[in-house]
Amino acid sequence: MKIALGILKNGRTGTIIASSGKSILYEGRFCLENFSEKLLHCVSVLGVSKDDVEKIYLSAPFFSERQDCVFPIIHFRIAPELFGDVPAYPYYLLNNVKILQSTPENLAEKIEENLSLIKNASVISTISPFGLVYPKQESKVVSIMVNFGKEKILTSRDYPHLGFYQREKVLIIAGNFLVSALPLIYQIKSFFSPLNPGIYWVENEAVFLEADFLPGSCGVYHEVAPLIQIARGCAVIHDCGYALALFKMGSTFKLFQIEGTRVNELPLQFNLNSTAFIQLQRQLYDIKNRYSKDLCGTIPVFNFSRYDFADCDPFRFYKVDFMKLKLLRYIGLIFAPKSLASGTICEQKNLFDIKKNLFRKLYLVSRRYDLLKSPLAFSQEIPIRYLTSSFIILKVELRERDGEIEGIKRQRRR
Amino acid sequence: MQRITSSWIEPLWYGSIFLGSGGGGKSELLASLLDKYLKDKDIPLMGIEDLPGGDFFCGVGFLGSPELTEENLPSGKEIKIAIEELERYTGIEFRGISVVEGAGVNIFYPLLAALKTGLPVVDGDAMGRAFPELQMTTYHLENLPVTPLVLVDGTYNVHLFLEKQDTFLLELNTRQIVCQKGGVGYFAGFPYPGSVLRKVLLPKTISFAREIGECFLKAESYGELVDLLLEVTSNSFYGPVVEIFKGTIKNISIFSTSKWKAATLVSKGDELQLLFQYENLLAFKNGHIAASVPDLICAIDLDKLKPVNNNEFYEGQPLTLLGLPAPLRLRINKALDVVGPQCFGYRTIYMPLEKIYKDFYRGVYF
């Protein structure tokens, strides 16, 4: 029997699950100290060998609690004095992080003030506005930190997301990943050694973790990862080829579209003055218009919000039992479609070569670990204009081919 | 005098994209920020006819890459510095803010400046749409210099252009700074009294953008949207909007530099080539000219019934291209020398929409 393991961790403790197909066979709690023992317990309770463990999924959000006053992550924000206000990030992201904001001129002073914190930190991250294309300020921090003997240093270039706040959040998430998830990955590797089961990081898709964490693949869906997994799990359990899942987060609705096992968020239209209900109504109206041409029959909407909605053609709303959420999330985690992703920032003139090389690298990884049978290749190019050179943010991805989705769509069209 | 409140932001958002004619950029963060500020405040909007002749106004705006604004979101502090610096040099106390480019991000940025300085905004602009360069304004057509101008770059360094300078040269100089200092810049310049602005500015473009945006919010079908747009544009100094093409994007090609791009749209055996750089500039249907700059070529995503910028195009996207005649002042020979197709490097002459779609316009007007 081939099994897949899922690992979720919040704070000091976490959960290991084991599944075969849609059946959850094992669920056990662990803490960092007894993680290997729990892995052994899982394998022995199920009566399987290490050989039978095919895949291991680590699910976002993944963080650990700070135990003393030592901050494992030091984050340098190098920005001019007049730099705009930075939004507040979720508490759990900042729990392990000490943010040191400094102007480029006062950097040395800031480092001196916080010398003891820096010495005790295991991960350093740094960001500056426009750091993607003008890495001078960040390079300065990197060179100083290298002199302090720091190895894990994250910069804007490693996580090429456009937009200061988005990139900063992703850098902090990546820092948390290195602090919280990496020690577990080492334990998993040593437990299964010499075998090498695939280890994946799941926010939306299951991103294969090569020797090092593939840049650009964390952070984007970090906050909504549990919702995505629940939505996917629900569609898998109910055998829906196409479905929607509705959640409410704070005052806004979150609507997800599930096609086979692929989930994507349908952003509610940019709509400042309308209430959340009107925004949702408009989105559903758009979906109705878009899909009525292609699809016949009803579209199931799994309703996880606490509101009741009346069915209206073509939507049928299903209330889901909140007791089942945990199970749905586990299924959604295990059924995450596999993907290999990479990203970089490059000049327009080198785009073709760099894109080719990145795809070649991903194909090699895929072949070496036998990950994706006949993958689909995707790429996204975001041009940045008005700079000394034409820069492009390039994201490339290989995705699992989901033959099932097409089959279901065809069936519904009939 | 009208007042801009938070209820303006959403229609202005769609109107600014439409008048951006494929470019001009957009920043959701900036619009959300303004919406937040305007919850308990408003901005007076002065009609051009109400401008006191002796009061001075300064033009403010944003230069560079709208995408990069999210790297360093403008807070309004930078434009306050620029305006104060300009006041110090000119010795003039400004009584209001004028809009230079009434489309894209540059509709919203002057509103932020107005909020931060407490000054009113003038309902008019100097382009009537989005254009990429400083000389492409009605000030240039009236031989009025842009200087004195203060530019604050993305790293908050202040650059002064105080002496009278050729607008083309100024465009090169400011662009060079913007490119080297983070790809964004904020300027305060065009210091002119109300009596001059009354002659120079294209009137009511801010409220026109709002009216355009309202059409997108009201329409429930494509037919309804076109009817609403037709009604609004026919009653403006632009002219009635015309459908250029309705189809699907077959491919998008990028030529030698990323500045030159083309999208091919197809529909029932017909093919349209849309040539664009920052804005949509030329359209050729089955090899014949279908629209040309300075007329506005606006793209509507048929799935969402919303206007889209050309950097959001993707293959397979169902689109409609609508043509909106440019204001007459942008169509005179002197204007075409700076905003005509040849100014963007194309070897073709400007062909007014009214000439290309004679039958349509005959039907609308007569």
From TrEMBL, chain A:
It comes from the Bacteria. This is Uncharacterized protein. It comes from Thermosediminibacter litoriperuensis. The lineage of its organism: Bacteria, Bacillati, Bacillota, Clostridia, Thermosediminibacterales.
From TrEMBL, chain B:
It comes from the Bacteria. Residues 169-353 form the S-Me-THD-like C-terminal domain. Gene3D superfamilies: CV3147-like (2.40.390.10), CV3147-like domain (3.40.1610.10). Residues 9-161 form the S-Me-THD N-terminal domain. This is DUF917 family protein. It comes from Thermosediminibacter litoriperuensis.
